Amino acid sequence: MAKTILIVDDSASLRQVVKIALMDAGYDVIEAGNGQEGLQKLDGRKIHLIVSDVNMPVMDGITFLKNVKQHASYKFTPVIMLTTETSDEKKKAGQQAGAKAWVVKPFQPPILLSAISKLILP
């Protein structure tokens, strides 16, 4: 059975690029346009990994991440932050909130896929 990845990003074009790379690698993909939408997608189904932007309207990625970690079913779901943010302060906030990896945009799909494969158990 394919592993499911949730992509949370306010850029539809970026979600599309990530989705194509993930689907080509054999993953199922769920999309959300911001953190609040992302939380609505956490409805009990198994999600193996989350890729989230940091800067989004409605609910940013760090707040979203903190909310995910409060969810009993998703507390241990690995989260990769995919963002234009490079400041150590933001990275630290992401790490403290529970992010497992930090990938800077523009990204190379093989780098993202490599990070994902290390975080998703077979």
From TrEMBL:
<keyword id="KW-0597">Phosphoprotein</keyword>
<dbReference type="Pfam" id="PF00072">
    <property type="entry name" value="Response_reg"/>
</dbReference>
<dbReference type="InterPro" id="IPR050595">
    <property type="entry name" value="Bact_response_regulator"/>
</dbReference>
<dbReference type="InterPro" id="IPR011006">
    <property type="entry name" value="CheY-like_superfamily"/>
</dbReference>
<protein>
    <submittedName>
        <fullName>Response regulator</fullName>
    </submittedName>
</protein>
<dbReference type="InterPro" id="IPR001789">
    <property type="entry name" value="Sig_transdc_resp-reg_receiver"/>
</dbReference>
<feature type="modified residue" description="4-aspartylphosphate">
    <location>
        <position position="53"/>
    </location>
</feature>
<feature type="domain" description="Response regulatory">
    <location>
        <begin position="4"/>
        <end position="120"/>
    </location>
</feature>
